[in-house]
Write the structure tokens for this entry.
Amino acid sequence: MRSPTLVDRAGQLAALDDRIAAAHAGAGSVIWIVGDAGSGKSRLVREFVDDTASSARVLAGNCLAYGIGITFWPLLRAVQSAAGITETDDADIARSKLASTLIDIDPD
């Protein structure tokens, strides 16, 4: 249930709901949420994820504010989190955990 104190976000939440409905129908999409610091991006996402988590698998990654060659960092972090891969896992363990996670998602 959405928080009654989330103000002026009905249109944005509806757009996110449309994307999740399309995903359930088989259409993939990428959603970018951008805005000034303090504009409520994290709150909007938190409300959406809280509502969506019961009907969809939610993966989250984060961006770094610095660095070169970190284009795929958020994707890496999301996959590591979903598969339970830790920084101390070697490549064989990481592959095993990833394979197990993928089989859990789609056995075929």
The chain has a mean pLDDT of 85.
